[in-house]
Amino acid sequence: MTTTCDYTMLRHNCAEALAADQQFGAPWIREAFERVPREVFAPPRAWLSTRGEDGAYPFINRATDPEAWARAVYTHDRALITQINDGNSPGGQAAGGRLSSSLSSLRVVVRQLSHLGPQPGRRGLHIGTGSGYDSALLAERVGARNVITVEVDHRLAAGARRALDTAGYGDVQTVVGDGEHGWSHGAPYAWLLSTASAMRTPWAWIEQTAPGGVIVTPYRGLALVRLVVADDGESASGPIVDAMAFMPLRGQRGRDVVDIRPVIDATMPRAEKLSTTTDLSVLGEILGAELLFHVLVPDAHVRFGETWWFQSRDASSWAAWKPTGHGRQWGPRRLLDEAGAAVTAWREAGEPDLTDLGVTVRPDEDRLWAGRSNGPSWLIT
Question: pTM of the full predicted structure?
Fold first, then answer.
């Protein structure tokens, strides 16, 4: 079995790698990182986040290969998958399916904390407890009694509770509940961190955060947004500060993408042929354009490759496009037309990159904006 001394060395070497990559945004984050034993929060059996040749995630077991397990826990730029299919995938083997919980890449973890910037002694709310590791890092900064963490999955919450107790963070309050509703019993909060991605920012988070408080959350599967609650508490607004992908809040997952290949095969002869006048290639090159596409073309999925395939999530419409500008579309939604309109809107807004965009949240709407909150904006549905 790997010794505690070995873990200390792995943690230090990992910190050195993160520092060399300039990922620590403040000295306290490295200090917290070096103090929190990540190995305590990693389940003994998990999956590597890089798919094998068969498309499945390789299984890793501390009991049978402790050295490989320890290296995986302290690989600075790769996540460790801790749950697949909400815990319904069999353990002990490689698996595929919907990823439902992970120990996030350490590069991502420390960047999130840099953007949040919580102050010592200030109480806050962590959405998406998972393993409990992020809560422990927060406890190092603000004090364990000032961290409340909410997890929708009771099995994950129980494991996090045990790990927090074992690692010496017993005063962190763990709650089993739907993070979309926050946790009003501890409000108001000076900060709120979500480690699950929001398609729309739950209004409960703004209500429960004090005026001037900071909310940091992954957003729409692509971005990390940093919101500040207005003085009157009636809105929150702020820029996208980073590119970041997280698993979605369980209540905002939406429907799975349907395998539309049988529909394509059956309808290809009847599909409309066209040549696009708008170059759609920016959707695969510039995250700002891709995010605006997802906002303006809702309930649609795109897969990039030699041919780009667009489909509505209900499988009623599809489109194919090549960088030559030639394409086909079929169904009640004209997906190439919609994609072209999204790219045109992006160009008219000044071709913003991801961090040129921001979000404003009010009780009845979210809006994505470019440049500043009073600049070009689009309603998020």
Answer: 0.91
